[in-house]
Amino acid sequence: MKKLILILSLIFSLFMSMSVLAADYTIGDASWDVGDRAYATWDEAEDKTKYKVQLYKGTKKIGGNNTTSSTKYDFTKLIADNGAGSYKFKVYPLKGGPNMAIESPAEPVEAEAIAVFKKSRSNSNTGTTSNNTSTNNTSSNNWYQANGAWHYRKSDGTYATNWFKVNDHWYFFDANGNMQTGWITDNSNGYRYYLNQPNGDMSVGWTLINNKWYYFEESGLYKTGWIEYNGLWYYLNTNGEMVTNTIIDGFNINQDGVWVQ
């Protein structure tokens, strides 16, 4: 009886192994579906599996490695938060593993598209930390344009000035309520911040400005010196610009700004 049970167990194990080997998790046609939102799409695997999808801006990973059971992923908010540039994504079937990953073509995203994405994305009320003080998480319906500048009308009817937070993003308005863009210096602390153009939200994370990469903390301050990001090391000079194709402290830095050993 014990021998029979062992034989049946071996047959079952062999059957399961053959089933796994026969499964087809191949996916294909990674592409973009871009209109008022930015969707990553790909063909479904023949056998049921979830998918891991990662967004890139240029060669840099943006956000986390996302898991989904769908064959499309909405990157609208993440792209809107990281500004204009060239985006692609990599996706692989979870059961198949990273060796089955496929990559989409690069999708150029202009400033005009970013403005559309910001209007279409769903409002988020999750809190973040910042060195700034005024906060408000009301709807974007309070935005209005006057004399060629954007303003924000608060719930009490007055317009926003100085730092003001809308839908989890920081903006800066001058004394007349005009929303600012580009580099600014906060006179209250002397620090420089970058407000994405044309949308005005304070930059956080990797940002490409005049063909130079910067990395901004959650506070909006740019980093300098050595930083580690997703297991890779980069060097940012005293102006916050990422350096490339050079040697710093005896360490070689390649064309992507990554220290190579």
UniProtKB/TrEMBL annotation:
A Pfam family of this chain? Choline_bind_1
Q: What is this protein called?
A: Cell wall-binding protein
Superkingdom as given in the UniProt entry: Bacteria
Cite the SUPFAM superfamilies for this sequence.
Answer: Cell wall binding repeat
Query: Which InterPro entries does this entry report, sorted A to Z?
Result: Cell_wall/Cho-bd_repeat (IPR018337)
